[in-house]
## 1
Amino acid sequence: MSPDIEKARERISRYSNQTKLKATLEASLQWLPDGGKEALASDILNATTVHKLHEIFFNILTILAWPAILQSEASQVRTPQEQLSPLGNYQQGTQEDCLKRDGSCCVVTGAMDVETYSEKGRPEGFESTHVQVAHIMPYFISYWNKSAMTTVWETLCRYFPAIHQARMGAGGINALVNSLSNSFLLNFSLNLVFSRFALAFKATDRPNIYKTVRFSGFPTSLLIGFPNEIELKPVAAPGSEHLELPSKNLLDCHYRLAQILNACGDKMAFLPGKYRNHWEYHIRWNVQAMLDGDADLSGYLETALWWA
């Protein structure tokens, strides 16, 4: 462990009356990847005031909150062509490839999309469910108000070097977020749980095998028959063998963010869902202004909700 990380932990430990700040920064120093830990430690040590520390804390909370908020607009597998925007048409190609690669089945439960199930004559050995294309990095992050998302991407790229490399390799934010490597099929319930960081997938030392990691926000009603491991691989269908698999680096980023959020206690762990519901029911009327860029969301998360 680097001396700077030790010094950063020592500094944080002195803030006994800053419970959430202390818990979040300590968990981040534990769970961020190599390179990210050192970057955070440097930021903490260079913060000359408590206000600067709160800015760092807020930046981390922002990347924990926005996925749950944006995922409330999660894309359904079947979207009428006339309802697709130009960006939606771009997503449609990824969506079709995702359906082909995953065999129209939830990658966790193996249950098949209800329409596909019916079209195939209700094949034996399959259950049916409603599936969605789940995005590890939320799909709507790619065209949301740019000023509002600046903090998210700057923080992600600084504390997750692999995300910066993936972004550069893909050719930009839109290309990365809308790539097949950022997508896989989940049923509706699991997509919601995944977006709220109550479910994550941890890579094992075996290729494409991931451990399912469940946190306190995972519903007990979903536990029956829930697998401890999953394998992410293309189904045995013509043309699917060359389709890109979900990115190990993106899944690792999601897993580490889930660990950070849940290490801060149940009250913090339930905040993304609480904030999402607040957003849906109280300010959804303003969504068009947000999408058009007329509303400044840079300070939107800095409300009393975070301090409740």
## 2
Amino acid sequence: MSTSPPDRDRRQAGWTGRYFEDFVVGDIYRHPIGRTVTETDNIWLSLLSQNTAPVHFDRHYAAQTEFGRPLVDSTFTLALVTGRASPTYRVT
């Protein structure tokens, strides 16, 4: 993913010591460990959590929605972001 010049100016090294009001919409936080989310990740979590919403696993159904393809379950997104960001929560 390339970033436009305004995005480059908004990158932050991390948020250690930041309060809620210090966050600004559009800030980008880079973490040293990346992760590619795969279709398998989404299917596994949908099965594990017994998610029955077809937009998360049924390609035919999802193709008819405004998104055009299956969506990643938001609980997976939350877990992934929390896990990747947790090293920045260290108390110094």
